[in-house]
Amino acid sequence: MRAALFLALSGLAFASHISAQEATQLQIGGGQIEVAFSSSPSAMQRKLVLDWVSLAAHAVTVYYERFPADHVLIRVRFFDGRGVRAGQTFGWNGGLIKIAVGPSNTAADFARDWMMTHEMVHLAFPSVAEHHHWIEEGLSTYVESVARARAGDLTPEKAWGDLVDGLPQGLPKNADRGLDFTPTWGRTYWGGAVFCLLADVEIRKRTGNRHGLEHALRAILKAGGTIQSDWELTRALEIGDRAVGVPVLSDLYKKMKSAPAPVDLDALWKELGVKRQDGKTEFDDTAPLASIRKAITQTN
Ligand SMILES: [Zn+2]
């Protein structure tokens, strides 16, 4: 998730208490990534966490063609248990990510995690007004799996299978008033992701698959649209549209911002050639949009 500025002040207080010897600097994709632990990790824990951070940073760098912040502080604390939880990203001093990990996590536990990549994607889009929160969470939800597939960390089957399973939670329900006016969990995270997938497919359809959502997002980042900047959403969408030469983002926003705009996902999966049955994903390369599906998750 992305958190508001007042919460960032607690991060500021914390930062002053980090002992220098606990912080490790990583240089990835032109970004300086500082990893700090709230309590001393074992050598093995430190290595696993640093490998995990590096992998996520690499995936995001593959997608954006650079790490989306010049400097980010990642503050890692341990919780009693296993897995990864409580990821939060703030636009403080270049970027601050707070996240908690289980002390007994294995390399496999970290390899399964999506949250670190999700949080890093938040660095790559400007802060917009609260009622547009769906674009921030939707981008992180969608780009996370696409970026990890492109980096070779997820198979295309896993990435598409997760989208098939997750996206229905983002469809409009009764009394929906559009993405800007329906701030439920489903519409914010997965409804935003539906917007992103539709935009990605439509940009590719209208540019002969030469451009995709990533080209729009890279242009927004290049124009200074990072988490540290407060922008009007329409400004970001217009910059993205100009970069790909077709006004897909602005048009889709007009359509989805204040109306339910239902989407037939089953028809879309058929067009893209994604078949999901009994927890297994198969691809149909004879489907009309198979080349678009392949381009979205091709490894770089
Ligand atoms: Zn998020």
Set out the fold topology.
Elements: H1 5-15, E1 24-28, E2 31-37, H2 43-64, E3 71-78, E4 84-90, E5 96-101, H3 107-112, H4 115-122, H5 133-150, H6 156-166, H7 185-206, H8 213-222, H9 233-244, H10 248-256, H11 265-272, E6 274-277, E7 280-283, H12 290-297
Parallel strand pairs: 2-3, 3-5
Antiparallel strand pairs: 1-2, 4-5, 6-7
Helix pairs in contact: 2-4, 2-5, 4-5, 5-6, 5-7, 7-10, 8-9, 9-10
The chain binds zinc ion.
Zinc ion (ZN) binds next to helix 4 and helix 5.
Polypeptide structure, described:
The protein is of the alpha/beta class. It has 12 helices and 7 strands. The strands form 2 sheets. The chain has a 5-stranded mixed beta sheet with strand order 1-2-3-5-4, with helices on both faces. A two-stranded antiparallel ribbon has the order 6-7. Strand 2, helix 2 and strand 3 form a beta-alpha-beta unit. The two termini are about 25 Å apart. The site of zinc ion has 6 residues, from helix 4 and helix 5.
Q: Could you tell me the mean pLDDT?
A: 93
Query: Which sequence of SSEs, written as H and E, runs from N to C?
Result: HEEHEEEHHHHHHHHHEEH
Number of strands: 7
Uncertain spans? 6-20
Assembly category: single chain
Distance between the termini: 27 Å
Strand content: 5-15%
Number of helices: 12
- Helicity, as a percent range: 40-55%
